[in-house]
Amino acid sequence: MTTTFPKDFLWGGAVAANQCEGAYLEDDKGLNISDVLPGGSDRFAHIVAEIDEENYYPSHEAVDFYHHYKEDVKLMAEMGFKCFRTSISWARIFPTGEETEPNEKGLRFYDELFDACLKYGIEPVITISHYETPLYLAQKYNGWASRKLIPLFEHYCETIFKRYKSKVKYWMTFNEINNTLRLPYLAAAIDIKNNDTSWFGDAFQASHNMFVANAKAVKLCHELMPNARIGCMLSLSNVYPNTCKPEDIFETYNFRRRSLFYSDVMMRGKYPGYSLRMMEGMGVKLDIRTGELELIAKYTNDYLGFSYYRTSNFASNVEMKYNTGGSVGIDNPYLEKSDWGWAIDPIGFRYTCNELYDRYQKPIFVVENGLGTVDTIAADGSIYDLDRMKYLAKHVAALREAIADGCDILGYTWWGPFDIVSAGTGEMKKRYGFIYVDKDNDGNGTLKRRKKASFDYYKKIISTNGADLALPEK
Questions:
Q1: Which residues are catalytic?
Q2: Model-level pTM?
Q3: CB neighbourhood size of 119 (10 A)
Q4: Which of 18, 176, 213, 470 could form a disulfide with 153 if both were Cys (CB 3.0 to 4.6 A apart)?
Q5: Fold entry, domain 10-464
Q6: In whole angstroms, what separates CA 193 from the centre of its chain?
Q7: Residue 27 vs residues 24, 94, 154: alpha-carbon distances, Å
Q8: Other residues' Cβ atoms within 10 Å of the Cβ of residue 3
């Protein structure tokens, strides 16, 4: 087995439109579900009807990538990026989601962005829906709980596939689709009206509707772009049993399957038996129409994209909580934590890569991994972000081991190559980037970009194709 990265390995970075673009109503863009959330998504489960002028919305300007994309792409090219993952904001193309004709100004922006990437040999890796369902569809239909969204999404996909078929080779349908059972507002635009489990019926029906929409997107992609690849995308930060107690072992296994159920359907093409028992136990009966199961079976995804940030421990008698980094249970005493309390576990990263490749025997793509931390600017203006570089080194080393284990891994995109607004907390203080953006939590700042020490470090990793992980001296 090889102990090095493949020659065509896709090194890069990843962002989401709603966390970086800003320009939230510019050029006839409509509102999406993220535009109405002040202070991040972790606090919201209800559909917010409108903008409250008394609140500050970090995403409305974000880091103004909409007007700075040429500068940012040039900096990523300087690092040697082979790919750049971002999303198309659905409401920038179809402001309410129900229009027949797309917004040409929105289409043109992504034309120019993709052209800027391709100018430097950077492959766009595009998420079609990244927590950006048009707000109108959430309000009118309760999001993906309604099958009305299936043809609307299909029309959206057909529009962007035809427009960008010569520019984009890598696509993903729904960002972290398994969060439909954990963060249903973000993942599926569902309003949770009760604190009990009555919303599970809507969540599972939304999941089925998204499976059908995913299959239709795969079919369209293969018909319109035979040389393109289209993946599904899940949040797959992992869980360990907290003890060797048999109940902890089996319930951890079952808990993990609540996420892997999604990739089982989209990668294997059918509902696994355990998922049917899970729904039955919750009193859920799906509305499945004629031909939908056959469609799901025929049009499976080409690869599995996933996010990995941390691990947590599971116990059968402890309630798990969730945020944008994954599930949160019992602290693992063997692991150090980030500034925001996220466990740092590179061995868990290798474990997860093996778990997924063993299960599906299809290519996997690490499309989110990174460390949110506080950056300190020295008197001379430099930013020596050692913790970020250590995290990167350990996870790249683990990824190299996973490839040596036999995992077929397409690429690695670090989450937030330049600082962006945190999805979960709405902060700028929680920084991921190799490029510092001058903006604070209150919206103050010049938006000036400056390189951190990790900029040159990641550049070295890419230039040596993951061979040189030696940390720089301060």
A1: 368
A2: 0.96
A3: 12
A4: 213
A5: TIM Barrel (3.20.20)
A6: 26
A7: 9, 12, 23
A8: 9
The CA distance from 400 to 391, in Å, is: 14
pLDDT in tens, 384-423: 999 999 999 999 999 999 999 999 999 999 999 999 999 8
Strand, coil or helix: what is 9? coil
Give dist(CA 315, CA 241) in Å, integer.
6
Please give the average per-residue pLDDT across 343-364, as a whole number.
98
CA angle 67, 69, 70 (to 5 degrees): 105
320 vs 311: CA distance, rounded Å: 12
Bridge partner list, 234: 306
Q: Could you give the C-alpha distances from 304 to 5, 374, 427, in angstroms and in order?
A: 18, 31, 29
Pull the structure tokens for residue 335. Answer: 């692991």
Contacts of 289 (CB under 8 A, 6+ apart): 147
Q: What is the C-alpha to C-alpha distance for residues 51 and 322, in angstroms, rounded to an integer? A: 26
Closest-CA residue to 430 (of 141, 38, 39, 50): 39
Q: Find residue 409's DSSP bridge partners.
A: 364
Which one, of 329, 330, 402, lies nearest residue 369 by Cα?
402
